[in-house]
Design brief:
alpha+beta; ten-stranded mixed sheet
């Protein structure tokens, strides 16, 4: 009997190939999308955590001013603090005047925290002169180990030997001062020691801090502020340090996409499977009755028909899991690799993929069993009789007599017919709504970006040419340029600014803007910023929401360029 039932299974699969194939394809696509996106996100998260542990990535990056060794010793005594590393960070420039490139330069006297990976060349040493260059910058500008690079740090140009190429955990998402995405041709970083660039041990402007296990970020920040007091300009952790938080936010957003896009597909799979299997089993009602008449046990009949719900869903989901892991995840990672600097890119599957596949298979199995058991509840003679069509309940429109009575007969037919097959209609609705959501999201994002760019560079920034200058370094040349341009220019001074309230703090770009006609910054009240009206500052929506502040509130601002902290009102 087993062989007969197996033969019937194969014959049913062949005769109903299109129905089973539709379940197979939907299962494949849903798991393909989920497994691909989720394994890419899971791989990024795993490699980040692994590198953070092996490199002893900092838990805090503290920008300081006027700090001495006593402050550092005081900080090290705190129970929440594991280790501290001092360093001096500044910008150097290389290249010609027409194609100047910026390198953020880090001078260290030890390498205990946020240790860079050496891609090629020698390990970082504090006994030999030389520099260790950002690997991506080196590739883009064709530098190699052993070459010399000319750096201008404000005290004249000087050549340094490249001892190695590195990838640093402090610069995972480094894009330069104002860029949104990485431009390795123009921006990078370089690490060196005090022997190569002599800096007084007392001269440092950044402190890296790692915390002991069992202590929270809040406790670490509190201890750091208590130890360094007013000398702290800004204090950021991994979730707010831009070079690191960009990567964390990226793998989190990919994970959200995996859930969002796959949810619609999972619903379609379940609806299509339930409807298809129910219809196939119902069409074989007489055969089921014949099996019972021949003495076949109920368990054998249930096992025979349960295969219908399992095979297509399982095979499609299994194929989707392997294809998603093998192709989609690698495609996603290949698009992210140029944007972030981490040494290892590898997708990692999650047990959640197999759990979801198991749920899909289980629901498909239950749909088959439920329909067969529904038929088997009847007596054999009743099963063999022709099934009568049950009367359907009223549709929603029939509860409005005036409306229903005015409808034409053909519309009444259509509405009643649709109400009898609600699951089919629901599949269509979910499919159409899901497709429209994805279509609107894909096209809408592009249109939004195009509109934003147009608004920004047409209505807000109305200049044609931007010149980046260093007034302190070239004072005479800057004065001559201002005299030549006259009123046909507008100055903007940019600096990293720490904004602090009782609710928290953020580090953002601060802009000091002179009078002019080329910048029209919009306000929420549909007015433009009046830069000369009052003393105070304007803040972006992002900063206002993050710090829970509004017009009229006071904030504390501080930067390395300022003499002291200032409390200013929000205009």
């Amino acid at each position: 009997m087993f062989k007969i039932l197996l033969h019937k299974n194969l014959k049913d699969f062949k005769s109903n190939f299109s129905e089973f194939f539709s379940i197979f394809i939907l299962s494949l696509i849903s798991i393909l999308v989920f497994a691909g996106l989720y394994s890419a996100s899971n791989g990024m998260k795993h490699e980040f955590n692994s590198w953070a542990q092996s490199s002893k990535m900092a838990d805090e990056w503290v920008t300081v001013k006027g700090t001495n060794s006593n402050d550092i010793h005081k900080l090290l005594k705190k129970k929440s603090v594991n280790d501290v590393q001092k360093q001096y960070v500044f910008n150097s420039y290389t290249g010609s005047t027409k194609s100047k490139k910026m390198l953020q330069t880090v001078v260290i006297n030890n390498n205990k925290i946020s240790k860079p990976d050496i891609v090629s060349g020698k390990k970082i040493s504090f006994e030999t002169e030389g520099v260790w260059l950002d690997e991506e910058f080196a590739k883009s500008n064709k530098y190699h180990v052993g070459d010399y690079i000319e750096l201008d740090s404000g005290n004249g140009k000087e050549s340094f030997e490249i001892k190695g190429l590195v990838v640093s955990p402090n610069y995972i998402g480094y894009t330069g001062p104002n860029n949104i995405i990485s431009d390795h041709k123009k921006y990078g970083y370089v690490i060196t020691n005090t022997k190569t660039m002599p800096v007084s041990p007392k001269k440092f402007n950044q402190v890296l801090v790692t915390k002991n296990k069992g202590y929270s970020e809040e406790r670490l920040q509190k201890d750091t502020r208590n130890s360094l007091s007013t000398k702290v300009i800004s204090l950021v952790d991994r979730n707010s340090f831009n070079n690191v938080s960009k990567f964390i936010n990226k793998y989190k957003s990919i994970k959200k996409m995996a859930v969002m896009f796959s949810l619609i597909l999972f619903m379609l799979v379940l609806m299509v499977t339930q409807t298809t299997i129910s219809r196939l089993v119902s069409n074989q009602r007489n055969i089921i009755g014949l099996f019972r008449a021949l003495g076949l046990k109920k368990i054998s009949i249930v096992a025979h028909y349960s295969v219908y719900g399992v095979i297509s869903t399982f095979l499609g989901g299994l194929a989707g899991a392997f294809l998603g892991m093998e192709f989609i995840s690698k495609l996603i990672l290949s698009k992210q690799e140029p944007l972030f600097g981490i040494p290892v890119w590898q997708a990692r599957n999650s047990n959640l993929t197999w759990i979801i596949l198991g749920v899909l298979v289980l629901i498909s199995l239950m749909a088959s069993i439920w329909k067969v058991m529904q038929i088997l509840r009847s007596k054999t003679a009743e099963i063999l009789q022709k099934e009568t069509i049950a009367s359907s309940s009223k549709n929603i429109f029939e509860y409005f007599p005036n409306f229903w009575s005015n409808l034409r007969w053909n519309w009444k037919w259509v509405l009643r017919d649709k109400s009898r097959a609600r699951s089919k209609e629901l599949i269509g609705v979910i499919g159409i709504v899901g497709s429209l959501i994805l279509l609107i999201a894909s096209i809408g994002i592009q249109q939004s970006l195009n509109k934003t760019n147009h608004e920004t560079y047409t209505n807000v920034f109305q200049y044609k040419t931007e010149l980046k200058v260093s007034p302190l370094k070239h004072q005479e040349a800057f004065r001559n340029l201002k005299n030549k341009l006259g009123d046909d220019s507008q100055e903007i001074e940019q600096t990293a600014l720490n904004i602090r309230t009782s609710q928290g703090e953020v580090v953002n770009s601060g802009n000091i803007i002179s009078k002019g006609i080329y910048l029209k910054l919009p306000l929420e009240s549909n007015r433009t910023v009046d830069l000369q009206a009052k003393k105070g500052v304007y803040v972006t929506n992002f900063v206002a929401k993050k710090l829970h502040i509004k017009t009229g509130d006071n904030i504390e601002i501080n930067s390395a360029a300022m003499g002291n902290k200032k409390i200013v009102p929000i205009l």
